[in-house]
Design brief:
By secondary structure, the chain is α/β, with parallel strands linked by helices. The protein contains six helices and 15 strands. The radius of gyration is 18 Å and the shape is globular. Bound molecules: zinc ion (2 copies).
């Protein structure tokens, strides 16, 4: 396995001052090991610049999130994944793997690319909505029950983590020991829609991380600058000094302690991320137009 520090230090494509003349690819592909990939969307296509994860097992492939852009011409996510999977094709077994497309949650910047995957015979796509996600688990036990998926010599644990958004999940990969946290925890300004649910989800993740070997926590975005507690404002398309992607289990433990200590929801500023409750107005807008907030 590759040294974990690379994910704390790696510089990603981070937009441009002048996007008209930006020549970075629409999707940066970072190969972590021979079957684990981290993809980042170009900020010049969407300021959200979400991260997407592709994990390849012997039998199946997990695609976690589909990005912020629908157009395959502008944002060729499907063909990018196809290329990565093809590199793993065994002789005579080309592209036989089934793909599972899941979403860290159903905000638009994490599922806009879904149409590129829909209707493909080898793809199972869990729709980004509450019913489909809860059906995928045991609906009556959501959010208390984990689900296990075997990609073939590679086991995943799917942990419900509502709070930032109702359908949020976190994925743990037994191969890389990554905890893929989506917008539940990432180096940025994290809006929390349901504080009580979020507190419980973070407690669940903290307990999980104590019971399992977690090498890094990787989320959906980078919004922090390189300076402690400082973040780029929403809408930024150029982040030359952005922080690294990975967070550590210590961050999770610190957040959990702080949430346990507080009686009420309030903005909490850590050096490497910020957690803040959504205002009532934001909640109203979010309810009316779920895609509006990242
Ligand atoms: Zn997001
Ligand atoms: Zn989100």
């Amino acid at each position: 396995m590759r040294s974990m520090s690379v994910l704390y230090e790696k510089a990603w494509i981070h937009g441009a001052l002048d996007c008209e003349s930006n020549s970075d690819p629409a999707i940066e592909v970072f190969r972590y090991d021979r079957s684990s990939y981290v993809l980042r969307q170009n900020k010049c296509l969407s300021f959200e610049a979400p991260f997407i994860y592709v994990l390849i097992g012997e039998d199946k492939v997990l695609v976690l999130d589909t990005g912020a852009t629908e157009s395959a011409a502008d944002f060729p996510l499907y063909t990018t994944v196809e290329t990565l999977v093809a590199e793993h094709a065994q002789q005579g077994k080309a592209n036989e793997r089934a793909w599972l497309v899941l979403h860290s949650h159903s905000h638009r910047d994490h599922c806009a690319g879904d149409p590129q995957f829909e209707g493909k015979p080898h793809v199972t796509l869990i729709e980004p909505n509450g019913d489909a996600v809860r059906d995928f688990f045991s609906p009556r036990k959501w959010p208390d029950e984990e689900k296990y998926i075997d990609l073939g010599a590679r086991k995943l644990t799917i942990i419900p983590t509502p709070g930032h958004q109702e359908e949020a999940i976190t994925v743990y990969d037994s191969q890389t020991k990554w905890l893929l946290t989506g917008d539940t925890l990432y180096p940025g300004y994290i809006y929390v829609k349901d504080w009580h649910a979020y507190k419980n989800s973070i407690a669940r993740l903290a307990a999980f991380s104590e019971a399992h070997d977690v090498s890094a926590m990787l989320g959906g975005h980078i919004e922090m600058t390189g300076k402690a507690g400082e973040y780029y404002p929403i809408g930024t398309v150029y982040q030359p000094d952005e922080a690294g992607l990975a967070l550590k289990v210590e961050h999770l433990a610190a957040l959990n302690s702080k949430l346990e200590e507080l009686n009420d929801s309030q903005k909490i500023v850590f050096d490497d991320f910020v957690v803040a409750p959504m205002s009532l107005l934001q909640k109203a807008i979010s309810g009316a137009a779920k895609w509006f907030f990242q």
